[in-house]
Amino acid sequence: MHRISLFIVLLTLLVLNINDVSQAQQRKDHIRKITSGTDTLLSLFRSPPDSAKLRVYWFWIYNRVTKEGITRDLEQFKAKGISGVNLICNGGYAGKEPLPGVKFLGEEWRELFRHAVREAKRLHMEIGFNLAGGWTLMGPSVTRDNAMKKVVSAELRTSGPATFSGILPQPQMIEGYYHDILVQAFQVPDSTKEIDPETVIDLTDKLDAGGHFEWVVPKGNWVILRTGYTLTGHPWSKWKAYPDGDTFQGGEGYEIDYLSRAALDDYFAHLGKLVIEETGKAGGHLDYLWSDSWECGKLTWTQDFTNQFSKFRGYDLKAYMPVLAGYTVANADVSARFRDDFDRTIQDCIAENFYGHFADLCHEHGMQVGNEAGGPNDIPPQDVLKNFGHCDILAGEFWVNGHYNSPDGYNKDRRERLNLKQTATAAHVYGKRQAEAEAFTQQEKDVTHWSLGPSDLKPYANDAFCEGINRFMLHEATCQPPSDGKPGYEYCAGQHFSPNITWWEQSPAFFTYLSRCQYMLQQGKFVGDVCFYLGERPPLLAPPKYVIPSLGPGYDCDYVNPEVLLTRMTVRDGRIVLPDGMSYRLLVLQNCTSTSPEIAKEVGAYQGLSVSPVPSNAMSLPVIEKIRELINMGATVVGSPPEMSAELKNYPECDIQVRKIAAEIWGDLDGKSRTERRLGKGRVIWGKTPGEILLADGVAPDFTFTGQTENPEQFDYIHRTSGETEIYFVINRTNQQEIRDFTFRVAGKQPEIWNAVTGTTRMAKAYQQAGSCTTLSLELDAFSSYFVVFRKPIAIDVKGLAKRNFPELTELCKLDGPWHTVFDPKWGGPAKAEFPELVSWTKRSEEGIKYYSGTATYTKAFDLSKYAVENVKGQRLFLDLGEVKDVAEVRLNGKKLGVLWCAPWRVEITEAVKQKGNILEIDVINLWANRVVGDLNLPKEKRFTQTHDVFRFDMLRGSTPLLESGLLGPVKIYSATDD
C-alpha cells in the first residue's frame, strides 16, 4: 500500500512537472512568436524609449532647494514621461527680491547636489549640469585675464625729423584693465587713410611699462598707433547678483574668454572638476556638461591671438592691424580680406578652443557635452555649424512670445524659431542623430507665467519638428521646497513644467505626443534634395526654414560650411554623400546665408551681425579644388564661378590660381546662353535655379498639396528615410479644420496614417499612385498633425478603393445646458455651481469662478435612445467637447475615456454609452494665471496662491487680462461610419 501510494505520488509529480514544462515551453514559444513578429517601429511609436523622451531644464534659482523637493521633482518627471534633467543654478527670478537659498558650492549645496545625483541614478534618469551660476561659463573664479576681451587703439599724429618723448594716448580701458599689443608708426600720404604695408614700422619696444614712448621720428608726417586690449564691457560679459543681474550672491563674475583654451582649462579646474568629484562621491554619473545660449556679446582678442591667427591663416597679422583702427592697408580689397581673415580666426578660435576643447575635457571625464552653440543673439562672427560639429548634444531654441496678439492662432514669426533649421542641418551634416531645442521659452509682459496650455504650445512644437528638431528640452521646471506652496516661486522665463502646475496629472498626454513625434523623427536620415554651400565670408549662419524662391515649395535642403565640404563630402552614384549616410542631389554654391534680403536681415538682426544677401564672389583655393574633385567624381554643382580667392594668404598669386581652376570647371559657360557643361563624371550648371534643375532631371517635389501655389506655408512637412521605410510628418499651420489632397514622392508602398496624439494608426484606404508619387486625402483639425508612413510594398498600379481615409461624422445631438459643476473651495471656487449655458469662467460674476484656477467637474445626465441609429454595422459614436480651456479628462458612466488637450476635442464613447441614463463627467483644468491675477488684487492674508508679490517686467499683475477658462463647447455626439 505504501509503495503504491508513493508510486502514485511520483507519477502525479512527473505529470505535473511535464505539464509545467509544457506550459513554460508554450509561453516561450508564444513570446518568441510575438518577438519575431513585433512591429518595433509601431510599438516604440506608441510607447517611446527614453532616448526619444523629453529633457527638462531644471532650475535651482538662488539654490533654494531641499532634498524633499529634489526627490519629488525627479520622481514626478520620471512618472510623467521626462527622461532627463539639465540642472542650472542661477538667480533669474520672476519676483522683486532674491529668495533665501543655500550657498552655491558650499557644503550644504554639495550635499543637495549629491542627493540629486543619487536620486537620478536610482530612477535611471539622465542628468546634466550647466557649468555656471548662470547660463554660459561665468563666475567668481574667472579673472580679468581669463575674461572676454576686445581690441582697442588710440593714435597720435606727429612729424619729423624730430624726437618724440612722452606718454602715448591711452586706448579705452574697461574696469582699469588694459594691456598693450603693439605700437606701430606709418605714413599716410595726402591726408588719406591708405597705408603701404611696407612702410609700417613696429615700435613696440619703444614703449615702456608706464606708457612712456621715445622715438626719433623720421622726416614726414606720421601716425603713431597704439593698439591693445581691454575687457569687452558688454552688460552680460560680467554677471551681477539679482536684482542688478541674473545670478545669486556668490555667483557673480566674468564670462570666460571663449577664444582661449587656457581660460577654459582654468574654469574647468575650478568648477568642472568640483562637480565631477561631488558626482563621484555620490556614486553617480553626470551624463553631460552644458553651456547654454550665447548672450554675452562680442569679443575680438585673446592673449595669444597673434599666434592663433598665424596658425589658422598662415601669415602674420601685425602689418595689417591698422585695418582694425579704420585704416586701409595696401588697398580696399586687401583690407577687406584681412578683416574677413580676422573674423574667420575668431570663428575658428570659438569653434576649436572653446567648443572643441570643452568637448575634449568632457570626453576625458567620461561625459558628453551639450551646447546651444549658435547664439541666439548678439554674437561675434561664428561658423555655427563648425561649433556644433564639436557637440554631442546640439541645441537651438524657440520662443512663444506674441501668442495672444497673433490673428493666426499662434505667432508664426520666423524670429521665434530662427536657429532651429541651423541646429538641425548641423546634426545632419555632422552625423548627429538628435537635434535638440530649448522649447517654449517666453518672456513678455502680462503673459509669461502660467498663461499657455498644451494646445497653445502645440503649433510651436509642430513648427520646430518641421524645421528638423527631434528632441525637446522643456524650458523650464523650477525646483523648490513643497512647503513653498502652489504655484510657487518661479524662474523669469519660459513655461513651467513641474508638479506645481494645474495640469500636471494630465501632462503625460501632451508629453507622450511630443515623445512620439521625437521618436519618429529620430529614425533614419533626413531627406533633402539640395545642399546649399554657405561660403567662407563671416559670419557663417544658416537661415530658418522658408520657401526658397530658387527651389520652390515641396523641396527641402541642408546647408554646409567649408569644413564639411572639405573633410566630409564625397560622391557616390551621382549623389553628394557624407560619411554618416546623408546625401543630396545638388550642391548649390549659394555663398551666403540667404539670397533673400528679408531672411538675411532677420538673421543678422537676431544675431547682432551684418549678414549680406549678396553671394560672395570669393572662394579659397582648397575649396575650389575640392569642388573640382566632387564634380569629376560625378556631383552636380550649381552656381557661378568665383572671381578671386577668399583669403589674403599668398595674395595676389592666390587669385590667379583660383581663376585658373574656375576656368577649368566653368569653361565657356556664361550663365545665360550657355548654362551647363560636363566635367569628368559630373556637371556644373550656372544660370538655372535648383528647382528648375530638379524638375528637368525628373525629380518631383517631395511634398505637395492642393492650393500650395497660392498658400505654400498653409501646411508643412519633414521627411525621414529609414531603410525601406519613408516617414513624413505633416502639419496644419492654421487654426481651422482642413481637408486636402497631399502628394508624397513615394510609390510602390502602402500609405499608413499614424496619429501621435492618440497613438492609433490606420491604413490609408483612399489613395492613388502616379509616376513616382502617391496622393491621399488627409483631414487635419486645427494645428493637427499626422505621420504618413510608407513601408509595406504594393504594386505601383494599386490604388485605394474607398472614398475617404477617415470616418464620416454625422451629428446626432447637442448636449445643451444646464451643466452642474463642482469647484474646489480650497482655491476659492464654489462647491457647487450651475451653468445654464457653456461660457468661460471669466464671464461669470462670482469672483470664486471668475478668478478660479484648477479643476472643475462638469456633470450632465442624458439619454441617447431618440438619437441612436440601432445596430447599423460599423457605427461608432464620438463625444465632441467643441472647445476646452485648457485640458479635459472625460468619464462616461464611470468609465475613464482619457485626457483631451487639443483639437479635435473628441473621444470615442461607443463602448461606454447606453441608450438611457448616461452620466457624463468632465474634469476641466485651466491655468494658474487667473487665480494669481485675482490674488494680486487681494490683501496677502486673503490670497489662495503662494507666489511672488510682484512679478518682474510686469509679467503678471492685477490688471493682466484674464484667460478664457472652462468647457466652452458646444458639446455634441456624433456617429461615425467608416467608408
Please give a structural write-up:
The chain has 18 helices and 48 strands. With 979 residues, the protein is α/β, with parallel strands linked by helices. It has five domains: 311 residues, Glycosidases (TIM Barrel); 83 residues; 166 residues, no CATH class; 101 residues, Golgi alpha-mannosidase II (Immunoglobulin-like), CATH 2.60.40; 132 residues, Sandwich (Jelly Rolls), CATH 2.60.120. The strands form eleven sheets. Strands 1-2-3-12-14-15-16-17 form an eight-stranded parallel barrel, surrounded by six helices. A six-stranded antiparallel β-sheet has the order 18-29-30-36-32-33. Strands 20-19-24-25-27-26 form a six-stranded mixed β-sheet. Strand 16, helix 10 and strand 17 form a beta-alpha-beta unit. Helix 4 packs across helix 5, helix 5 packs parallel to helix 7 and helix 6 packs across helix 7. The protein starts with a helix and ends with a strand. The N terminus is likely disordered.
List keywords for this structure.
alpha/beta; single chain; globular; eight-stranded parallel barrel; 27% strand; 5 domains; TIM Barrel; disordered N terminus; 979 residues
